[in-house]
Inverse folding.
């Protein structure tokens, strides 16, 4: 069953740049889907629209029965976004950051859930550390913990391993697979073909704002 349906979604920014031509896409519950494409292809624009941060020029989006454009507040509760840039207060602790994010969505308590997330991300021992004290890899994991704080059904990761060395990239891949076993549907963007191949059940290739191909991974390798 589809957890997310994108139908005819397009975006032309006020600057006149057409970032997306009408896009149609269905994401199944529990899958890992990679949006693969070069810089400027429209990947960030598409996930920003689905997450209710950017308004599309046209089209409709359904997230688990909610109209993600008209009713973006309801849809936002169902999704978590891990942005490319470090969007946290560096002077705050890991635990306070995650708890604050959870409260923002009107979810309180449930310390067992937060503990599980921090343990999954190997951050539990660092929960009382200020984010500025953490390594680069740990800071990235804090962004994931923050995005998971309100128990979203779909997790979006925008270029999760851009600028990361090979061993950290492998760690990140393992981690994303572990999150999926917790029942989270995962959509990530990448410009690394190996990452799409390693991570995803299905891959959508996006180029110049057009979704040119959506394939099961095994089929993709035959096509490229
Ligand atoms: P919208 O149509 O969603 O309102 P705008 O075209 O008004 O978006 O741009 C939103 C903001 O993004 C503006 O402040 C603009 O300066 C900035 N911006 C413009 N071009 C780019 C770009 N290529 N990449 C990232 N941000 C940009
Ligand atoms: P990707 O994530 O694949 O690198 P983006 O979605 O960031 O692609 O960008 C797609 C196109 O839209 C690019 O041409 C980019 O310069 C443009 N763009 C992105 N954000 C904005 C913005 N806020 N305002 C104007 N143009 C933008």
């Amino acid at each position: 069953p589809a957890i997310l349906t994108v139908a005819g979604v397009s975006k032309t920014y006020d600057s006149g740049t057409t970032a997306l031509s009408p896009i149609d896409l269905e994401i199944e519950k529990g899958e890992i889907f990679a949006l693969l494409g070069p810089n400027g292809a429209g990947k960030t624009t598409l996930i920003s629209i689905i997450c209710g941060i950017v308004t599309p020029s046209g089209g409709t989006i359904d997230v688990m029965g909610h109209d993600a454009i008209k009713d973006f507040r309801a849809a936002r509760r169902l999704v978590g976004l891990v942005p490319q840039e470090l969007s946290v207060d560096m002077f705050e602790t890991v635990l306070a950051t995650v708890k604050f994010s959870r409260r923002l969505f009107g979810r309180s308590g449930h310390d067992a859930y937060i503990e599980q997330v921090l343990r999954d991300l190997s951050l539990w021992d660092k929960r009382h550390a200020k984010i500025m004290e953490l390594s680069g890899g740990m800071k990235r994991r804090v962004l994931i913990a923050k995005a998971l704080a309100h128990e979203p059904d779909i997790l979006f990761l925008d270029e999760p391993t851009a600028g990361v060395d090979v061993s950290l990239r492998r760690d990140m891949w393992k981690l994303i697979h572990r999150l999926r076993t917790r029942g989270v549907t995962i959509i990530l963007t990448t410009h690394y073909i190996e990452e799409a191949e390693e991570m995803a059940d299905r891959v959508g290739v996006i180029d110049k704002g057009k979704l040119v191909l959506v394939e099961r991974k095994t089929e993709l390798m035959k096509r490229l």
User: Anything to note?
Assistant: The CA atoms of residues 11 and 56 lie 5 Å apart.
